[in-house]
Fold this protein.
Amino acid sequence: MYSQNFGIHYQIQCFDPKAHLLKVSLTIESPTQPEQIVRLPNWIPGSYLLRNFAKHLVNLSAKETQSGKPVQIEAVDLCAWKFHATQSVTVEYFIYAWDLSVRKAHFDETHAFFNGTSTFLAVEGQRDRPVKVSLVSSEITNQKQWQAATGMPVIEVDANGFGDYYANNYRDLVEYPFEIGNFVSLEFIAANVPHKMVFTGRFDQTVDWDRIRDDVQKICQTEIDFFGQAAPMTTYLFQVMVTGSDYGGLEHVNSTALICARGDLPFLGMDKPTDGYLQFLELCSHEYFHTWNVKRIMPKVYQQSDLNQPAISEQLWWFEGVTSYYDALFLLSSGRIDETTYLDLLGKQLTRVYQMPGRFLQSVAQSSFYTWTKFYQQDEDAPNSIISYYTKGSVIALALDLTLRKQTQNRISLDDIVRHLWTHYGSQGIGLEEKQIEQICSELCLKFGGQSLEVFFATLLYGTNDFDFESLFSEFGYDFILRPAQNSTDMGGQLSIETLEKLLKGQSFTLGARLQDLPAGGVKVTHVWNQQSLYQAGITSGDEIIALNGLRIQTKAQIDQMLQRYQNGQTWECHYFRRDELYTTTITPQQALKDRVTIVKSKAPAKFQWLSTAGAKHDG
Ligand code: ZN
């Protein structure tokens, strides 16, 4: 590989941090005849939205590599250009990098981060050829002594990571984002694979880096052990951007790009993990599991995509839902959390589904199919009209796990399905056809003494009715309880027995809306649940509630307090703004629906095993 002559060579430089410009030059040794087309993708794998990356490409030109003579280049469409040349041509352009997320590119005096989909033009007709990437140092990278971290295979680089890299083809090329800056770097080994975490951003002296390294190491080791085979990657990199309040991650073949809030990192002296830190660990666990599930075990349509047009699949319940189910399970099976904490996380996850009336209108298969236009482009009506394939997908994973365990008398579980897909598809590079995973689940269930899962999938994946978790959970020694919310900040999960009993006996009231405190005081309505209280009052998303019963309202906590004291049958006079116009209406709070989930250990003994073995090491 190293001695290979690369016919396609990209050079990229952190050029102008004030204008946020990355400079790219692309040398194509043998342009296709009679014309060569170069094209930037429209979407990035793992994030199902057409993002038209070419809108950030500026000042495109081309020249003969040897003579420097200009070559005329013209547009083919909004994201592709063509030229004619019979000898080596160098195409030059800049990328405007000012998107602080894991999906595009970002560059200023603090760091640079870029994805290949944002920066590297594909050379049409030559996408299968190996390419060389040279990361070139610049004034700012020299001055600040920045380092580079990427999963891209190295040809030869200096101590800071500047130099030459390669990828086997274009599709591989966009799998290796770069993080460049002065970062905190953590290293560890899991199952003989060297892992690295790099953190950019501002953080103080109190961050407990050892704890992060230890926790993430245990999670990675647990996930590799789960598959019971050598890990599919030879190195792994976590690229973490730390900001004030962001959250997100994107998976790649041997790395992941994460963005998290400063306050979510653990601090020295922290005893019990905070909710924010658990969320960070779940994110690490989730993206890491994608190394197997979606980066290798993957839908055939994703394998075949050239990233121009949407690749449409109904299978995201598996790739995001199952991954969401396991991200928390691995925190438990790696010993990062105890069973009570796990049940709390699970109750909250289930609540995210039971809170959404949209689940009665959209199936998970549809949610996956339409993700390009609906899930990834949610508006204020989302709770009423759609369901998430992440949350309900994870609920299907849970139901499937318990159903397999029960039907086969604990002979197989979801763990075995995942490992089967890895052995027979993912590790072989074979993509999965639509509906194939459902068939495999049914076949394995039948083979080990259970029944066909046709009705199961018709109900949970293609249907919109709720699943009977009450009776299924009871056979595993748990009570599945649907209860009303205590207040607007109650997201489900564990409660003390006393609070739970009080809540189930008593009455609690709601406005059926999601509210947001405004920085200057006042409460904005962000989402309104159809048929509930604010809907009945004619208040809609975007409206600002300013007074109730003649008294000024400045925070949603005030509304919560009024709801706590509410007596059935009373009405409230409400003043609110829609746009800059003042309106008056009458609100009648309604009894809160039982849409929060709490799971507790039951008194009855378990007939089947679940958490004692789920997500654990595979031994043969
Ligand atoms: Zn995911």
Q: What stands out?
A: The two ends are 35 Å apart (CA to CA).
